[in-house]
Amino acid sequence: MLPFLKPRPKVPATASGERVYAIGDIHGEYELLRKLLERIASHWEASDQSATDVRLLFLGDIIDRGPASKQCLRFITQLSSLNGVTCLKGNHEDLLLRSMAGDSDAQSIWLQNGGDATLASYGIALPRSDEDSFDFGERVKAAIPRKHVAMLEAAPTHAQSGGYFFAHAGVRPGTALNRQDDFDLFFIREEFTGSTAWHGAVVVHGHSVVDEVDMRDNRIAIDTGAYRTGKLSCICLDGTSRQILTVRR
Fold first, then answer.
1. Strand partners, 214
2. N- to C-terminal Cα separation, the chain
3. Which sign does the torsion angle of CA 122, 147, 21, 41 carry?
4. Which residues pair with 236 in a beta bridge?
5. How many Å is the Cα radius of gyration of the chain?
6. For domain 18-90+148-248, which architecture applies?
7. SS3 at position 221
8. Residue ranges of the domains in the chain?
9. By C-alpha distance, which of 202, 248, 246 is closest to 222?
10. Which of 73, 116, 145, 191 is 20 to 30 A removed from 9 (C-alpha atoms)?
11. Exposure pattern of 192-205 as b/e (b: 16+ CB <10 Å)?
12. CA–CA distance, 249 with 192 (Å, rounded to integer)
């Protein structure tokens, strides 16, 4: 065994006394977000409530593609001020931040992958023919409330609870969890999803769309393609227990 990889537990568990509600890619689907949070609240009320710490963890990609990125970002910015609520950074948040900094390559990728929907939700016009990448970036940044931008800038790239590691896209197989590159945490796909390697923890991720929450020995995929399928999913992890919560339009 490589020295940086922890042995695989027979049954992974969260940190002692901790329950985690991890939510997949929202992509501007505000009504689904509200419906899922109501479902989570009902689930908590109906449970034994023995967990001493409850975490609400968004796995990134809260913006783009869907019709209500502004509402999603505003709502999650407000939630993030509460104890136990964390929003990880996804590739779409990374592209938005780099676009605001004037990165022309990021702007091109972002606008081809749903960034135009975020612009529309904030009432921001598309790039003009007489506008360079820095001017466009400044215009976008000026139109988005500073609180929203600050939340995205401060968003962590990953989180952990006991035998679970949370990241938007996944991890690079064979690389220690504490040495992962941000690009992989935001963007990796087949190299991760096609691997059966043990990563040192069970990786809970979004980014790569699945029909239903997909639980493997080394990873759990929870992005059920909300903007396309109308399904938004969450996994509740409490000790060794796992429960799937999904809402539909």
1. 221
2. 46
3. negative
4. 21, 243
5. 18
6. 4-Layer Sandwich (3.60)
7. strand
8. 18-90+148-248
9. 246
10. 191
11. bbebeebbbbbbbb
12. 30
